User: What shape does this take?
Amino acid sequence: MTIKPLIILPDSVLRQISRPVETVDADVLRLADDMLDTMYDAPGIGLAAIQIGVARRVLVIDVAKEGEEKQPLVFINPEILASGSELSVYEEGCLSIPDYYAEVERPAAVTIRYIDRDGKQQTTEADGLLATCLQHEIDHLNGTLFIDHISKLKREMVIRKFTKTAKMRGSKAI
Assistant: This one.
């Protein structure tokens, strides 16, 4: 298992739409394990494969509280089947947009279908932080960032700030 470098805003890779995984094989499982290592090292509670430059529909999540035993979850080809009508607001952050946080309103509960590590199709219902995290990471698979859910003015300010920083580093812009 390997800790991979994170793709940081404004890198255009973050806007790519990830392609489905055809078969859960050793490469996909290795990718998931590398993603978990990278997420824990960052540290974060969720990571989509595109955030390490791999345009595959794989995401990992662990919403265990600090001090609790790790509860790593792997979702392959996740899709939202249904969203609850009740909304909730969480202050979201992103490993690809370091040190920036904003309140985002999303459905409080979702039902998702995905493939697990064993290659079996699963359906699960999630609410609270897990529902928010799933929606955030699935957005990544579709080339959407959490800043796309905030006001245009705030989003443009964040993009400008990260673009300026990237120019100093010599990165690709969105």
In short: The chain has a mean pLDDT of 95.
